[in-house]
Design brief:
With about 400 residues, the protein is α/β, with parallel strands linked by helices. The protein folds into two domains: about 140 residues, Rossmann fold (3-Layer(aba) Sandwich); about 200 residues, Dihydrodipicolinate Reductase, domain 2 (2-Layer Sandwich), CATH 3.30.360. About 35% of the residues lie in helices and about 25% in strands. The chain is built from 14 helices and 18 strands. The strands form three sheets. Strands 7, 8, 9, 10, 11, 12, 15, 16 and 18 form a nine-stranded mixed sheet that branches. It has a seven-stranded parallel sheet with strand order 3-2-1-4-5-6-17, with helices on both faces. Strand 2, helix 2 and strand 3 form a beta-alpha-beta unit. Bound molecules: NADPH dihydro-nicotinamide-adenine-dinucleotide phosphate. The site of NADPH dihydro-nicotinamide-adenine-dinucleotide phosphate has 34 residues, from helix 1 and helix 13.
Length: about 400
């Protein structure tokens, strides 16, 4: 029976709060705060209608550490779940330290002026959380999040070592728009336009954005083109799987998406440095976000499935030589919308956020300091994930990926 404060009322926050309300034995008292309080209230109404649970709502600018600390003191939660944007991570961690409360998020800190997704800013909080006897759990979404737990599950139950690891993220959903992003457009476009980086023989190797394209036939979705790109879990996986020779991350994009993105990049609309427009400083990418559809508005029209998983090759635990396993979840956009009013990209992030919070509140995962998902027992997390709407399967493949 625990009190939790969620910060951020976007698609991910909405799913997480709905799923918390569906688990009242763990989340007995739910508080939701965000920049725009009307979004919290709309989520609160939906939660009440779907589950009968009443949540409390607040307006907060989470960049303001003093205001966030005051709100945390007023509410007195056991855990703050940060589902705002990566820019707020450090400010919310500071507020948690100031008030003596545990912390969790789904994306690593990024400064606004450079698209650099790296853990070092948050890992630098290790001693402070440890000394305070508090837990900070980083990256409890799907990717990062479940993808790391999948790798650790394979390492616990199937493979003694993981030599090759590929994370494959396919969104086979169609929202009927010429161009839209499935989560926050600013964060999404910063991620896909950044140079690709993969782990190979002890270091990151950088290649131009979207320059490595491969075709892959995804179960229940069909053949898709996927592109190698950098994703933040590669950094924590390289740290916690020191034996890994090669780690790569792939994401599917349709030709229409690539065409629009190429034009937007070529004309400068994805820039994150300020430009003067009519005497006012604007950031082109932030302006672009303002004219693109809100990801949360895509739920009602999105059809199709997501298919996200890990393919890992390494020495089998049972001594039978080198083996390859594929562990994944397939999720249906329309089913997610029916259950929570949000599409599958928000759902596949919000459910693991709720499960990560449940692991901390039930003390199945505990410790003082800053933790990545790889550092805890994968079994209770994946058991609950399956029960809570994201079932997963594991199969042995005849051979490693051919590319
Ligand atoms: P949205 O943009 O839909 O929602 C973000 C919410 O945070 C909005 O309600 C926004 O408020 C609020 N917010 C922004 N700035 C502040 C602030 N300073 N103070 C308080 N609230 C603020 O994003 P998503 O829901 O799609 O994503 C949420 C998080 O999840 C992001 O960090 C994203 O990177 C991460 N994510 C992780 C994934 C994973 O698999 N690990 C996958 C997808 C997303 P307002 O409404 O006023 O703008």
């Amino acid at each position: 029976m625990s009190k939790v404060l969620v910060i951020g009322a976007g698609g991910v926050g909405s799913v997480a709060v709905h799923k918390m309300a569906m688990n009242p034995d763990i989340f007995s008292d739910i508080h939701l705060a965000s920049r725009t309080v009307s979004k919290c209230e709309a989520i609160g109404e939906s939660v009440k209608q779907r589950t009968g649970v009443t949540i409390s709502t607040y307006a907060i600018d989470a960049d303001d550490v003093a205001a966030t600390s005051a709100l945390i003191r007023e509410i007195g939660p056991e855990l703050v779940v940060n589902l705002a944007l990566p820019y707020q991570d450090l400010a919310i961690m500071d507020a948690c330290l100031a008030t003596g409360v545990n912390y969790m998020d789904t994306a690593n800190y990024e400064p606004k002026d450079v698209a650099k997704f790296e853990y070092h800013w948050q890992w630098a909080y290790q001693e402070r959380f440890k000394e305070a006897g508090l837990t900070a759990l980083l990256g409890s979404g799907f990717d990062p999040g479940v993808t790391s737990v999948f790798a650790m599950w394979l390492k616990k139950h199937k493979l003694k070592t993981i030599r090759l690891l590929d994370i494959l993220d396919c969104n086979g959903g169609d929202h009927g728009q010429a161009f839209a992003t499935n989560f926050n457009p600013e964060i999404n476009i910063r991620e896909v336009t950044a140079p690709a980086r993969h782990w190979e023989n002890g270091q990151f190797v950088e290649t131009p954005a979207m320059s490595n394209k491969q075709a892959f036939d995804f179960e229940q979705v069909g053949p898709k083109n996927m592109y190698m790109m950098y994703h933040e879990e590669l950094e924590s996986l390289a740290k916690f799987l020191p034996e890994m020779e090669r780690g790569r991350f792939w994401m599917t994009f349709g030709d229409e998406y690539i065409k629009h993105l190429t034009v937007l990049q070529n004309v400068g609309m994805t820039r994150i440095d300020p430009v003067i427009y009519n005497g006012v400083e604007i950031i082109p990418l932030q302006f672009l976000k303002a004219v693109l559809p809100e990801p949360s508005s895509l739920g009602a029209t999105t059809k199709g499935k997501t298919n996200i998983g890990d393919i890992a090759t390494g020495e089998a635990l049972d001594g039978s030589g080198e083996k390859t396993f594929y562990i994944k979840n397939i999720c249906d956009h329309e089913e997610c919308y029916e259950e929570t009013g949000n599409q599958a990209v928000s759902y596949t992030t919000g459910v693991p956020a709720m499960v990560g919070a449940a692991m901390l509140l039930t003390k199945k995962w505990e410790g003082a300091g800053v933790f990545n998902m790889e550092q805890f027992d994968p079994d209770p997390f994946l058991a609950m994930l399956g029960d809570q709407g994201l079932p997963w399967t594991v199969e042995e493949l005849a051979e490693p990926l051919a590319f």
